[in-house]
Amino acid sequence: MKKTSMLLSAIAVAACMGVDLPAYADPPPWAPAHGYRAKQYSYVYYPVREIYYAPESRMWFWMNGGAWQFGASLPVEYRQYTGSGGVSIVLESDRPYVYHEHVVAHHGKPKKRNKHDNH
């Protein structure tokens, strides 16, 4: 019995020594990218009218009639809201409206102005 136990132990040790398993530190390529692998996109967010501008692609994103619109130029009626008050943000999507609830929660929704407030 003692010889059998020693023999099995020796076989187990020898088997473990001959196995070379690679250590995987990164998630597999098909996994969703988070952290350092994720592509990041820079935007300027204008909370007054909830408008996004992507400087890299020179695209504008704005809400119109309950639906998100985008284009290379901002409609004339929205341009007055982009002169100042923009907040620089970085998101993990080329469609900033996907993270809009997160952006509003962290960068605030526009404050309603009193019509008598002339600041």
Please outline what is shown here.
The longest helix is centred in the N-terminal third of the chain and has 16 residues, at 2-17.
What's the arrangement of secondary structure elements?
Elements: H1 2-17, E1 41-46, E2 51-54, E3 59-64, E4 67-71, H2 76-79, E5 87-91, H3 100-107
Antiparallel strand pairs: 1-2, 1-5, 2-3, 3-4
The major beta sheet can be summarized as: 5 strands, antiparallel
Uncertain stretches of 5 or more adjacent residues: none
Distance between the termini: 93 Å
User: From the helix content, strand content and strand pairing, which structural class follows?
Assistant: alpha+beta
Average pLDDT figure: 80
What coarse outline follows from CA principal-axis ratios? rod-shaped
Question: Count of DSSP helices?
Answer: 3
The rounded Rg comes to 28 Å
Strand fraction equals 15-25%
Regarding quaternary structure, what we see is single chain
Looking across the biggest beta sheet, what order are the strands in?
4-3-2-1-5
**Helical fraction:** 10-25%
Order of SSEs: HEEEEHEH
Q: What is the strand tally?
A: 5
Task: Write a concise keyword list for the protein shown above.
24% helix, rod-shaped, alpha+beta, 119 residues
If you had to describe this structure to a student in words, what would you say it looks like?
It is a single chain. This protein is of the alpha+beta class. It has a domain at 37-111. Helices cover 24% and strands 22% of the residues. It is built from 3 helices and 5 strands, in the order αββββαβα. It has helices at residues 2-17, 76-79, 100-107; strands at residues 41-46, 51-54, 59-64, 67-71, 87-91. It has a 5-stranded antiparallel β-sheet, with no helix packed on it. A hairpin with a 4-residue loop joins β1 (41-46) and β2.
